[in-house]
Write a structure and sequence with these properties.
heteropentamer; A mainly alpha (620); B mainly alpha (246); C mainly alpha (494); D mainly alpha (125); E mainly alpha (95); B: 246 residues; C: two-stranded antiparallel ribbon
């Protein structure tokens, strides 16, 4: 039996078994999910690299699956994050209803993602893509709250993306009658693909939906928020990266072979790449702005995910070796830190009952481990040295500047800075500050939930110290995309002015400063501070209403919001709402054709008959 | 407005129908000479007498060459009866409404009593001689149904045995199908005629199984049409009677 | 006596005539005998399909007259596909409705007889080789369908049936007229012989005849301006009958269209028109479906939309497109069957059958709701369910014909389809049940039927080769008509 | 061509009347509001169609397709028997349809208390 | 030519009675006119050398269809009313 097929089979059959096992015991599905992912992971890591190759001829089509070095990068992410998330889910999902459905869909979507990165033909790519989409849809609506807004929107946008892809696939098929990606690339190289431009635009559209690029991002914040945290980690961490994977596939491995003279429109660094990069930049900026004003931690992180995906898209779209590397680096990092953050928020939600930052505060004493992992990942997220987020951002800036996109750097830099603001808010809102009375009972999450988070936090620290650990696999993966020998000096960045900056120094310096500050503050805080409740009015200058929460969690960025209020006034969702209302009215109008009067129907028949007769007799 | 649209549509449709009929000159011979057997019609005209010994070619076609259509057709009628019964079905409690209307005149009653046997005999004659003279199962059946109709109208209390109707209808239908199946069983085809002695042309016993089938069809059609009318007649609401006599 | 295609017709007819007598002695015979007949259908289908795969197309003569002279029945891969599909759906419907609520024995008898004749008539349309005979079977189907539509007492059933009857009368009028005109020009009614003689017809007359067939058969196959009857009929008929309408009756209409367009005439003459009609049908129907409040009506519009896509595939007219059309019809039959069957119990005691009444039914009927959700996923074409493959093959066929704008529109409409199906699923699963209608749990028979269909949907979805070879053979047979014509006109079974 | 010979008059009167009959019936179906009128229209359409069937089978100076003992050799003059056979079937089927339609009318009237088709539209959209 | 005369006369009669059947507001008369249409058709069939069809039309078209219509009219209403009355009208012209 083929190893790759076996891995997929384990996941899919595990899904079915998990679904059915709910009848036996509530606890069983989570265990089965964990076991299947573990088994798949063991199988993947113990097999030699060249066995991941699977061909199937069925229904008149040839399906090819193959894991190359580039896909391997994503497989690492998928399996690693899913494994940790499923371990976490065992504890997280304890005592919840309908676990069977949850783990069924979770395993399905993991299998779907593996299938996507392994697919070497467009039909199996699409099949796995759809499986991933609908299973993630079912998890998004799993909690059942707000089905209409969240669920339907997610599915509609996904379907729009998927059908755009299908359209593109069909265009390619009509030209060369094959779905095989290698053959398509060959055809592009030989310029036998007249529909290349349309097809690639449509494909990119489809991938942009999953990557939540700007005009198509409206589904993402709600969907990320709605899904249970154990899954949101996967959702935001790797599932959204499938869009990035697809973009890389189109931009870097397909379009690269297009003749620059013929396809100057779409060629890398050309029109489409630029547009995509700008969309990414705008997404990053706007999503960051929205993240700032969220009060729900999960929603904040959701917007933050959208913003981060914007950065990653920029890197892929610019398409220079450095930018691609930066982008892949950021992708892996994002999977790690956003995964950790969502898991941590899940822990908070499970223990404290909510992730609303205005309701809880001061959990640092109750949930110290969670605080620790949150801190680590937030430092990564904000792109502050000493952790690896800084390295990724730096690489991206450098790539952009060397490529001449200086203005884009400004946008990215702005949103990166703002990211620091919102990430601080999480830290402060939930963990720091005064302790609420009603969170006094909160306990630390169980070990099975802490462990995955801590593992990821440690990974983040390790990567921050030795970012080069990641450069090797990325560089290897990039050889598949045609970027041979991307040279990267471990821990050394060359800046714009030609000097080299040793990252190690920066990191060490900042690390030392951080520790010093920590020590200083801790020592200072020992004395003279007093714990006050959030409803203690003695700290307040005015006379508040009774039980009014006066902490900073409320209106955290009030001044900023006031300043930036014109930006918030226009909502993207409004446009879609208007559109859907308009369509609704149109549909309602259209169906009035069926008047209910049988005679009218008969009249239609005769009108149609006569019209057809006239048409046929006069034209054919 | 709508009326003018419809009139326009009718004119256009008429134009195209006439245009189509232009290719079908009236009264022209389109079959070719019967001996050539170029078309089915010519074949039937040429072969009916030698092959089936039936004088009435239409009967031969209806019962034998295209007997399958006839089977379908009696099925349509059968389904119409079944369907009518289900469409106009009333639950048990409301079923027993009397067929109320003014009693018919004595003339009608007497006339009906006299005419009824005659009509039935005429009908039987028509379908028994279906293979010799114009007429056949449908016609005869319809005539018999008319006779029953007469009785139903003349005598408000005329009780038609539903059970009888069902029996006749079903048995006739089964007879038809089993004659067809007999052909299959004896190694021929469905509705095969050749296993039955052909007889001589223009005698009552001729045409193989055709008269038998037509008799079965006659009974069946008679029972079905009577059934249809009976069902229609027995649905009444209270106001119905007054409505027709103004 | 070996099994021949005529058994499809003769046996149910004999049974139908027998049932009124037998049910006088034992009431249960009215439901058992149709079941036996449907089981026998399965046997016939199996035996004949094996025979076809061994020896090719079977042409059986009726009354001992060879093809152009008498009526003949033809059973090849193409007809066999339809006949088998209809037999299976018929059997499942019977099994499903075996314990369906029926007031007392008399309507039960007519229900089973009409159901049996509905399926028989449709199979008759499929296997006959004579155009007028096809008309007769269309009428058998129509009459049974009217009666079944108005089966439930009450005003709406009658209204739906009357509309159906009104429109279907146009259909039979036009088909009859077209048959007559064909006969005057060619002197034959046999489809195979007609196909060798249609070139004799003057072009303008041929076009008129074609238009009449398109309109007449378009009514049966629910094309857009002609399908006013369909939503009403689907929504008023009992739920299992809805499944038969979607899985059997429409298929009969589509089969007739294909037979006429491909075998008798050349598809290229009307292909463009069918293509555009199918497209309009799909768009309008899906758009109307999204605004429905009644589940069965929504399913009906969805059904019309699917038939529009099938008609588009027929309009494309290549072998691949025909294959896609057949695959779609197969999927539509089994998936719509599942949807109608599950709806039947989900809304068993509801009078209005609105979507709102399905709030939270998943709590009460986990299995049924799962079936409905599965059907929804399959019908919108999500992999790995069978609906996906047919959609893929249709798109491939359309892409081969370079019909990109059509593909785009069909895909856009699919999004609409997703919205309304998922909305219902959402209502079922994610709303709190407000008030409790008296419910009726399905019996084992219904569970078996739905389980079988679900297994088929998933099985074909995971491994489409279960049926693709067979469908390819059917599509080949239809698009290469010489074998059909040759077999009918020269070789025949006596 | 324009002269009113036997042929022309016959074809105009037969074909013309059958076409006009069909169109009149269709007109009634499409315009008249009364259900019974509509059914009458349908049956008139059918009548016209039946007439057309018989008419296209007609042969000049033809005889009925029945072999009488004395006239076996008339085979060349017989009218086309096939349309007649078909129209027999069509008439019976038409009657069945009419009967079903009428029963539906009765039921509709019972529930709606009206026979106007434009008021019977509780199923729509 | 004699036949032609008869046929054209019958055709006119046919159309006239069909016209009457459609125009007549009293449905009973309309139905009877339909029966007349069938009657004329039956005669035409006979003249067109189709005695079988004529017989069938006579039995079914004239007798049975007409009676079926009459029964229906008895069960519903006799007059076709063109005006839309408000709501469900069940008042036929009984007075």
């Amino acid at each position: 039996m083929n190893t790759l097929a076996l891995i997929l089979l384990i996941l899919f059959s595990g899904a079915i078994v998990a679904f059915l096992s709910e009848k036996v015991s509530k606890f069983l599905p989570s265990l089965i999910a964990f076991i299947s992912i573990t088994a798949a992971g063991i199988l993947f890591y113990t097999s030699p690299a060249d066995v991941f190759n699977f061909k199937l001829s069925m229904a008149g089509l040839n399906f090819t699956l193959k894991i190359d070095e580039f896909s391997r990068l994503f497989v690492h992410m998928i399996i690693g994050l899913s494994w940790l998330a499923s371990m976490y889910a065992v504890g997280y999902m304890q005592n919840k209803e309908r676990q069977g459905t949850f783990f069924f869909n979770m395993l399905l979507s993991i299998g779907g993602m593996l299938g996507i990165v392994a697919a070497r033909d467009l039909v199996s790519f699409f099949v796995f893509w759809e499986i991933m989409t609908w299973s993630s849809f079912l998890i998004v609506v799993w909690t059942g709250a707000d089905f209409r807004r969240t669920g339907i929107w997610y599915m509609v946008f996904s379907a729009m993306g998927a059908y755009a892809m299908l359209m593109a696939i069909m265009m390619i098929y009509s030209d060369i009658h094959t779905f095989n990606i290698d053959e398509i690339i060959a055809a592009i190289a030989e310029q036998r693909l007249p529909h290349l431009v349309e097809a690639s635009v449509l494909l990119l559209f489809g991938f942009s939906v999953k990557a939540a690029l700007m005009p198509l991002h409206v589904w993402a914040p709600n969907a990320y928020t709605q899904a249970p945290a154990a899954y949101t980690a996967i959702f935001s961490g790797v599932l959204s990266k499938m869009g990035i994977f697809g973009m890389a596939l189109v931009l870097l491995s397909m379009l690269k072979f297009a003749n620059p003279a013929d396809f100057s429109l779409v060629y890398i660094n050309g029109f489409i790449g630029q547009i995509l990069a700008w969309l990414g930049a705008i997404t990053a900026a706007i999503a960051t702005l929205y993240a700032l004003i969220q009060t729900d931690a999960k929603k904040l992180l959701a917007y933050s995910s959208v913003a981060q995906l914007g950065y990653i898209t920029i890197g892929i779209a610019i398409g220079t070796p450095l930018s691609v590397m930066a982008s892949l680096f950021l992708a892996v990092l994002h999977a790690l830190f956003k995964g950790t953050l969502f898991l941590a928020m899940g822990a908070v939600e499970r223990q404290a009952g909510t992730t609303d930052m205005t309701k809880i505060s001061g959990l640092i004493r109750r949930m110290p481990w969670t605080f620790f992992v949150t801190l680590v990942s937030i430092i990564s997220l904000a792109g502050v040295p000493p952790l690896a987020g800084f390295v990724g951002k730096w690489m991206l800036y450098e790539a952009l500047i060397t490529n001449g996109n200086v203005f884009m750097v400004v946008v990215v830099f702005f949103s990166s800075t703002a990211a620091f603001l919102y990430s601080y808010r999480i830290l402060f809102g939930i963990f720091l500050g005064q302790e609420e009375d009603d969170t006094a009972h909160v306990k630390e999450a169980p070990l099975s939930m802490i462990l995955p988070m801590v593992v990821m936090a440690l990974l983040l620290i390790a990567l921050g110290t030795y970012p080069g650990l990641l450069f090797d696999p990325i560089a290897q993966g990039m050889t598949v995309l045609g970027f041979e020998n991307v040279t990267w000096q471990m821990t050394v960045l060359s800046n714009v002015w030609g000097n080299t900056v040793n990252l190690m120094y920066i990191s060490t310096t900042i690390g030392v400063a951080f520790v010093a500050a920590l020590l200083f503050l801790t020592l200072k805080g020992r004395k003279g501070s007093r714990n006050v409740g959030t409803k203690d009015i003695s700290t307040s200058g005015e006379i508040p209403l009774e039980h009014e929460n006066l902490t900073y969690q409320l209106d955290f960025f009030k001044p900023f919001e006031r300043a930036a209020s014109p930006l918030y006034r226009r909502k993207m969702t409004k446009i879609y709402d208007d559109l859907s209302n308009g369509l609704d009215a149109l549909f309602d109008f259209t169906r009035k054709i069926y008047t209910g009067n049988g005679q009218t129907y008969a009249l239609y028949v005769v009108i149609f008959l006569v019209a057809l007769l006239i048409y046929v007799q006069n034209t054919l | 407005m709508k009326r003018f649209l419809v009139i326009f549509l009718m004119l256009a449709l008429g134009f195209y129908l006439i245009q189509a009929l232009h290719f079908v000159p009236f009264g022209a011979n389109r079959m070719g000479a019967p001996a050539d057997k170029k078309t089915v019609a010519a074949f039937y005209l040429n072969e009916t007498v030698p092959q089936t010994a039936v004088a009435n070619v239409v009967t031969a076609i209806v019962v034998n060459y295209r007997g399958f259509d006839t089977l379908g057709e009696v099925t349509v009628l059968f389904l119409a009866t079944t369907g009518l019964a289900s469409i106009l079905y009333k639950r048990r409690d409301e079923e027993e409404t009397e067929r109320v209307s003014k009693p018919s005149s004595t003339i009608l009653q007497t006339g009906a009593k006299v005419l009824f046997p005659l009509v039935v005999i005429l009908g039987v004659y028509v379908f028994v001689h279906g293979h010799l003279t114009p007429g056949g199962g449908f016609q005869g059946g319809a005539i018999i149904a008319t006779g029953f109709l007469l009785m139903l109208i003349a005598y408000q209390k005329y009780h038609l045995s539903h059970s009888m109707l069902t029996w006749v209808e079903s048995l006739a239908g089964i007879l038809f199908v089993s004659i067809g199946l007999w052909g299959l069983i004896t190694g021929g085809t469905f509705l095969e005629n050749s296993w039955f002695p052909k007889g001589t042309l223009n005698s009552l016993i001729s045409g193989g199984a055709i008269p038998i089938i037509y008799i079965a069809v006659g009974f069946k059609v008679a029972a079905e049409l009577t059934g249809v009318l009976d069902i229609l007649l027995s649905t009444k609401d209270d106001k119905s009677a007054s409505n027709i006599q103004q | 006596m070996s099994i021949t295609p005529v058994h499809y017709i003769a046996v149910p007819l004999a049974a139908a005539f027998l049932i009124p007598i037998l049910s006088k002695f034992h009431k249960e015979t009215a439901r058992i005998i149709p079941g036996l007949v449907f089981s026998y259908f399965l046997v016939i289908s199996f035996v004949l399909m094996r025979q076809v795969s061994n020896t090719g197309i079977i042409s059986e003569t009726i009354a001992g007259w060879r093809a152009p002279w008498g009526i003949n029945l033809v059973f090849g891969y193409f007809s066999g596909f339809f006949a088998t599909l209809m037999s299976v759906i018929g059997f499942l419907t019977w099994l499903y409705s075996y314990r369906f609520k029926l007031v007392d024995s008399k309507p039960a008898m007519s229900y089973y007889i009409l159901l049996m004749m509905l399926v028989t008539g449709s199979i008759g349309i499929v296997i006959t080789g004579d155009i007028f005979n096809m008309f007769v079977f269309l009428e058998i189907v129509a009459i049974s369908a009217f009666s079944l539509t108005s089966f439930y007492p009450g005003r709406d059933g009658a209204e739906a049936a009357f509309k159906y009857l009104l429109i279907a009368s146009f259909s039979s009028f036009l088909i009859l007229l077209a048959v007559l005109l064909l006969y005057t020009q060619t002197g034959t009614l046999n489809i195979a012989e007609l196909s060798t003689k249609v070139h004799l017809i003057p072009q303008s007359l041929k076009l008129t005849i074609l238009v009449m067939f398109v309109v007449g058969l378009g009514i049966e196959s629910e094309l857009f301006p002609l399908n006013g009857w369909a939503p009403d009929a689907y929504s008023q008929a009992p739920a299992p009958v809805g499944a038969v309408f979607a899985g059997v009756v429409v298929k009969g209409g589509i089969y007739a269209t294909m037979r006429v367009m491909f075998t008798m005439f050349d598809i290229n003459e009307m292909g463009q028109i069918l293509l555009i009609l199918g497209l309009i049908t799909t768009i309008i129907a899906e758009v109307a479906a999204i605004k429905q409040t009644q589940v069965k009506r929504m399913l009906a519009y969805s059904s019309i939309g699917q038939m529009g896509v099938v008609m588009m595939a027929i309009g494309i007219g290549t072998e691949d497109a025909v294959f896609a059309a057949l695959f779609m019809m197969f999927n539509h039959a089994i998936i719509k069957g599942l949807l109608f069957f599950s709806t039947g119990f989900l809304l068993h005691n509801s009078l209005t059958k609105t979507i709102a009444e399905m709030k939270g039914v998943a709590k009460k009927f986990p299995v049924l709701s799962f079936m409905f959700a599965l059907g929804s996923f399959a019908i919108v074409g999500l992999p790995p369910f069978s609906g996906f493959w047919s959609k893929l093959y249709f798109l491939m066929a359309a892409a081969d014909a370079k019909l990109f704008s059509m593909i785009a529109l069909v895909l856009a409409v699919s999004i609409v389809e997703i919205v309304y199906y998922f909305r219902v699923v959402g209502v079922m699963y994610y709303h709190q049940p407000d008030e409790s209608l008296p419910t009726k749990q399905p019996g084992l028979n219904a569970y078996f039927v739905m389980g079988f269909l679900a297994a088929l949907i998933i099985g074909v979805g995971v491994y489409p080769d279960l049926i693709t070879n067979f469908l390819h053979a059917a599509a080949y047979e239809l698009t290469h008509k010489t074998e059909y014509v040759q077999t009918v006109l020269t070789q025949f079974v006596r | 061509m324009c002269s009113f010979d036997y042929q022309t008059i016959m074809s105009i009167s037969i074909y013309g009347s059958s076409v006009v009959l069909m169109l009149l019936g269709l007109y009634a179906v499409l315009v008249k509001k009364n259900l019974i009128k509509i059914v009458i229209g349908l049956s008139i359409v059918d009548s016209g169609l039946h007439l057309l069937f018989v008419a296209v089978g007609y042969l000049h100076n033809g005889t009925a397709p029945i072999f009488s003992p004395e006239a076996v050799d008339k085979v060349n003059q017989m009218v086309d028997p096939v349309p007649q056979a078909l129209v027999l079937t069509a008439i019976v089927i038409g009657f069945a349809t009419t009967a079903v339609a009428l029963s539906l009318v009765i039921r509709l009237y019972k529930h709606h208390k009206t026979a106007r088709i434009d008021q019977i539209k509780s199923l729509k959209w | 030519m004699f036949y032609a005369g008869i046929f054209s006369f019958l055709a006119l009669l046919l159309i006239a009675s069909a016209w009457y059947a459609i125009r007549q507001k009293d449905l009973l008369y309309g139905v009877i006119a339909t029966g007349v249409v069938s009657l004329i058709l039956s005669v035409m069939f006979l003249l067109l050398q189709a005695p079988d069809v004529a017989l069938t039309e006579a039995a079914i078209g004239i007798a049975l269809t007409t009676i079926a219509f009459v029964i229906t009219i008895r069960n519903t209403e006799r007059y076709e009313n063109d005006k839309v009355e408000s709501g469900f009208q069940n008042k036929t012209k009984e007075e």
